[in-house]
Amino acid sequence: MSKYWSPLAASLVPYVPGEQPKNKKFIKLNTNENPYPPSPKALEAIREAANGDLRLYPDPTCDALIRKIADYYGVRPEQVFVGNGSDEVLAFSFAAFFNPAEPILFPDVTYSFYKVYAEFFGLKAELIPLNERFEVPFEQFERQNGGIVLPNPNAPTAILAPLDAFRGLLARNPDHVVLIDEAYIDFGGESAVKLVHEYPNALVVQTLSKSRSLAGMRVGFAVGSEELIEGLNRVKNSFNSYTLDRPALAAAIASFEDEAYFRQTVERVMLTREAVTDKLRQMGFHAADSGANFVFITHPKVAAKKLLDSLREQGILVRYFNQPRISNHLRVTIGTDEEMDAFIAALQTILAAEGC
Amino acid sequence: MSKYWSPLAASLVPYVPGEQPKNKKFIKLNTNENPYPPSPKALEAIREAANGDLRLYPDPTCDALIRKIADYYGVRPEQVFVGNGSDEVLAFSFAAFFNPAEPILFPDVTYSFYKVYAEFFGLKAELIPLNERFEVPFEQFERQNGGIVLPNPNAPTAILAPLDAFRGLLARNPDHVVLIDEAYIDFGGESAVKLVHEYPNALVVQTLSKSRSLAGMRVGFAVGSEELIEGLNRVKNSFNSYTLDRPALAAAIASFEDEAYFRQTVERVMLTREAVTDKLRQMGFHAADSGANFVFITHPKVAAKKLLDSLREQGILVRYFNQPRISNHLRVTIGTDEEMDAFIAALQTILAAEGC
Fold first, then answer.
1. Would the N or C end of chain B have less CB density within 10 A of its end CB?
2. Phi/psi of residue B148, each to 5°?
3. Is the omega angle on the peptide bond into residue A153 within 30 degrees of 0, that is, cis?
4. What is the C-alpha separation between B1 and A222, in angstroms, rounded?
5. What is the dihedral angle through the alpha carbons of A245, A247, A249, A252, rounded to the nearest 10 degrees?
6. Pairwise CB contact (< 8 Å): B87 & A216
7. Which of A43, A53, A98 is nearest residue B50 as measured by Cβ atoms?
8. What pLDDT, in 10s, does the model give residues A255-287?
9. First-last CA distance in chain A
10. For residues B77 and B66, what is the distance between their CA atoms, to the nearest angstrom?
């Protein structure tokens, strides 16, 4: 605590990102990164952007990337907003659409940054408990609110909800924004982007960090009605006019231009996910069907914290959340087949040592 | 206006950045970009960063860059914060150190984003008028305040204040942060970074966009006491954990490693600035001595708006602010000698047509 901190800064409980080890000795299954590199076209675009034009500011309106995303999803450019990772897009959204007078709703078990954003912008949050199977209880969101935030698939549960459930929610909340965080939607889910044509209150947020292997470039985006996108631009231009640098813009455009590579890597991750899920279940783990690039697992006999520590000793990082309801679960990113073989082998060693 | 906007979003008056033309036909003297490319080492670092590791998040703590900046300025790594351009660092600073209960002070004529940040974070701003020579009246800042924001050199006036004036201000405001925005300090000024050893309330903000020719990469930083840097990190980690992408981190590190190139380009800009200032004065313009990479000029007979429009017709962009006190001034970035020759020639044509 410092006398120089504002009351806001003093009150914050910041988000804690997953560990980014400084050396490479670990198998990293802890931050939901894609095990495959970005499209070679994206890498080439970054190299091409490394020229004297970097002395110039990037386009603050990000026109070229916005037009690319609009084309890709069949919406108008005025319906697309891009930001410095989906985290920034989410932060701007909390500022743009929610207000302190009414509670915003999100699940009790979900991306832990939502609560942090709510505190940062002085918003009341009402946490809606997931049901006992960790599914989103959509009917529980039918209550007075100032906005709803729902990831699909949810994290860290990995559970995908059907698009029709969102249709109902959007129709019953015509006066408030329903933010659908689709960070992981490309791994087999159906995007709600198509709903923005029907519902002016639907804001769909995605990232290039997961399915497009560009976590290191920080690009996220939102698709919604023009009035929502205008609201986001108002906030952005009151905070930071130039949020995406030139190589990031170039890489993102190139990624959307390489559909074949995108499809191929996403499918490989999904195939590995199915195989790993089967093996984990055979070993006694509970794992719900995953719609993401990670699985969320618990074992009836060995505590998650014990597994976490033992895996780390064997050079494998996974994510553990010391939170109510999920403190006996692990979130495990889907890596390459080789990485997952090593993960499964390590688990077998640990379980054997525990007498399972 | 949309019913989905928060009261905050509805109330904002966003910042308007200088024009970034989509084609290259213009001589761009409107956004204070460096006319010389970034260090070749920075470009090479970006190319090297364009590899498969981009699938991984960047280091959220930006350790390597922070250590490089700390070494460069002779401070501890705990005294350095980096962000996505100095605009983001400034925005985080307004959130971290100022509070709605007390007015923050900054000049009436200064970087127009300060007022926007104040509104965004619900802060009261008290504008202190520059004196009639557009100098910062330091004695006028000796009043009750919740923090002070002062650029040095000031923008768009280009006028540099002596470091001793900041010493006095820091000493007389021990309970509040004095933020010194040194976006342009490398063009001949003496940095206040050395003051952070004496004054725990000094926060010095700089950018790599101007003197290091990296506007296209979005890197800024702050140097201050450990408690101030911790405050910034609290805010950052409540907003966006990964603000700098991997190529930006690599480019910034490489830039600080190429001191010779940095010195050379800065000196070229300063030499051109002195020559241009002389020529402008010979043509009847008033131009205060500039400590930045731009000059701030006014002509006794031809209106600034007229000059702006006529220059644009001749393919030259400069910056005009339709604001009280400075609506008859132009801010003109220092380009290459060739660009400035074209600028001077265009002005001569315009003045001749006006009978001057």
1. N
2. -130, 140
3. yes
4. 19
5. -140
6. no
7. A43
8. 999 999 999 999 999 999 999 999 999 999 999
9. 47
10. 6
Between A226-236 and A86-97, two packed helices, what is the crossing angle to 10 degrees? 100
Q: Taking CB atoms and an 8 Å cutoff, what residues of chain B touch A99?
A: 6-8
Contact A50 B35 (CB under 8 A): no
Cβ <8 Å between A20 and B59: yes
Provide the ipTM: 0.96
Its sign, for the CA torsion A57, A62, A64, A65, is positive
Distances (CA, A) of A34 to A37, A155, A251, B66, B130: 7, 16, 16, 27, 54
Domains of chain B, with CATH numbers?
7-37+260-353 (3.90.1150.10), 44-258 (3.40.640.10)
Select from A249, A172, A241 the least CA-distant residue to A208: A249
- With beta carbons under 8 A apart, name residues in chain B contacting A60: 17, 20
Distance from CA of B323 to the nearest CA of A (A): 18
Instruction: Give the sign of the dihedral formed by CA A88, CA A92, CA A97, CA A103.
Output: positive
CA distance B154 to B108: 11
| pLDDT single digits (tens) A71-88 | 999 999 999 999 999 999
Element (H, E) at B282: helix B259-282
Q: How far is B356 from chain A (nearest CA, A)?
A: 34
SS3 A14: coil
Question: What whole-number distance in Å separates Cα of residue B4 and Cα of residue A174?
Answer: 10
